[in-house]
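pasting for the record
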Amino acid sequence: MGEGPIYRYRQLLAEGALKPDPEQELAAEKLQLLHHAVTNYTPQSGITGWRARLGITLRPREAAPQGLYLFGGVGRGKSMLMDLFFETAPVEAKRRVHFHAFMLEVHDRLHRWRSDPHIRPRIRRAGKDADDIQVLAHVLADEVWLLCFDEFHVVDIADAMILGRLFTQLFELGVVVIATSNWPPDDLYKDGLQRDLFLPFIALLKVKLDVLELDHGIDYRIERLKGQKLYHHPLGAAASRALARAFDEITDGAEPAPDHILLKGRRLEIPRAARGAAWFAYEDLCERPLGPADYLELAVQYHTVLVDGVPRFTEDMRNAAKRFITLIDALYEHRCYAIIAAAVPPDRLNGTETHALEFTRTVSRIIEMQAEDYRQRPHLT
């Protein structure tokens, strides 16, 4: 068997893990072409030393392979296909990251450099008059030259104002980009403030990335969990096995790995994650000092959250109960799947007087999140 995403894709078909899908196969073939291209590509990020100061280069810069922008509806297999590419790409300097997390890191680095200019790296080839964004592009290109973004979307004016300049620099430095999105490029930052300033970035994106729509098919995420229970009680081996099966189904059997979310200098540790699903023990989410911002960020970055071990809340657990209420609100408002193993049915979870009224809404939302019509709604990133 050959190497690359198309061979892995066909292996999954043969094993029955995937169903035949012409659009998915076309995307896998395009990713296979890109696999070959990056195999034979070495970016020339710049010439250092006296040659750089005199403007002398050793050879013409090699044109970077055109990347891929894969967009379409929720559950169409975009992330799965990008993962097949990422896992097989014979490149050490590569990174797969949720786009929202990447932009949080960009803002964090820029903020730290501007707060303390002495910690900003000195990169000679960027030029002595280089600004922070130009320097950041060189830093990023030195770290990785193959960037795979999941859930590419732009809603924030601060992101919109940075993206054009940052990505122009990254592309000039030979960085190759693959992205998945629920939106076509022309709909990015739609109706946003000062969108006319963002349009050159969209034009650049369509030049540097081949754009392919993956749509008009089955939402496999919904299909896999169709008719399955998403709330399991009582706690025990059977409920834990049910969560394990659901995680396996929704991630196409991907191996879970630890992950984390960066938020204003804090890290939210995720014990197990894969392909847009995050799996927690109840204690990790509700018995730690987390707040609405943490849960909202979790809901943005993951379409499915599994929680094992939810107890019946008593009055001495009122702080944990409040966090559980806030968690469910965040997941519900971002149309996430919540797959829960709990001690008792939803209407018996609350044994507190403090949060009795609030818990009425929580119970209602948990029940609604199990319904098929809720499952049909797209995740909001």
